[in-house]
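In this supplementary section we document a worked example of the pipeline. Step one takes a protein sequence of length 418 as its only input; no multiple sequence alignment statistics are reported here. Step two produces a three-dimensional model, which step three serialises into structure tokens for compact storage. The input and output of this example are shown verbatim.
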Amino acid sequence: EVQVTDQAGSSVTATWAVSVDNSQFIFIDPASPTNGDGTKSNPFNTMVGISTAQGTTQSPYAGKAVILRAGTTAFYGPESSGNYRMTPDTKNPNVFLGYTGEIAVLDMSAGAFQNYGMSDTYFGQLTLKNAKPDGIDLSGETDTLMYFDWGATNRTTFFENRFENLYWYSGAGSSSNQAAIVFWNPGSMRQYFAAISNIMSGYSVSLTDLFNIRYIVQDKNVFEDSGADFVENGGFNVKSDLQYVSIRENTANVSFSFAVGLLRFLNQVQSYPNDNIEIAYNRGLFSATDNAMFLYQSTNGSPNVWVYRNTLLGNIKQFDVPGTVLYENNVIVNDTNYDGTMCGASESTLSECTILNVNSNTFSVDNPTGNIFSRTSDQVINKNGDLRGEASAYLGRVGYQITGKVTLPKPPTSTNVK
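The serialised model returned by step three reads:
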């Protein structure tokens, strides 16, 4: 039973039954001396055999969950490229879990997961390491990624995973759709995607690059300070045909340049309008002269976007957003400019530039209910982004801090697999 209470105090309770069937699990243990039958007592020691190639018969393990034991399993898919396809005809397993209390690693050097129509996909408590560039459409586009979805899928979840060694590909066919998790445009709207409590380590691409989803939660993800300067994009690449999006309590405290910051809100509109997007309680700490967040409109649409209770060190770039963008109770520390710097400098001018609704360019304790804008010299926040000095009087009302400090997630730690 679970109970959910909204900000207005209204609650709803859901109850459901869960049946347990040990036969629905497949075990892979890279330390096993033999490639067994997939049971816990006689596990496989490789991914070979758990799936079938596209266009062949259905997988004998359709509908089962794959449990990976401690150590490093070399990624293998049945396709000639090394990719692992999830399709309605083969029904290859699409639930992958690390064994509780162990660090299970998938070395993704040889391929990527590709989903062409399987719903209820789940990845949990895994370390996915060493991404390689992969072709993602018929036009020849090639990008770095680990999971690629180009189907009418619903209910996809990434929970408490660690992504390591994903670096920007700039070779032939490369484009801006490079991320650990990429959702392409299938021509219809998917529903329900969650990326919660994941860690990015060793990277210069986004965690997510999203098209065509309704109902999205990206919460408590952490970007560690171990990446290279980004070529473009941000931690989250919010692109096209997205509705009811919540990006909350994510953390980036990094010394390198994120190019466009924690969030790149591109706001393309291909088939369905972007709308109802909230960006709240995030902590994005960059250089005071780098970008912390970048919002712009490249095609038609008038989204409603709420940006509230974030703590951001760095520039906020916004232009050509014809919808409503509301900033409330944010703490923004910046040593250059807050507003208007991108007006008229967009790729295409669709509307007049929307100027950020700032109360002041100087920190003021007399404005506890609005945004606090300051310079680093004002020392409004410490190195962790926590309110300090006079500003600490507004803890719980301004910035990312709800009750002191947001507890960070604890996904699998690195095993330093080369």
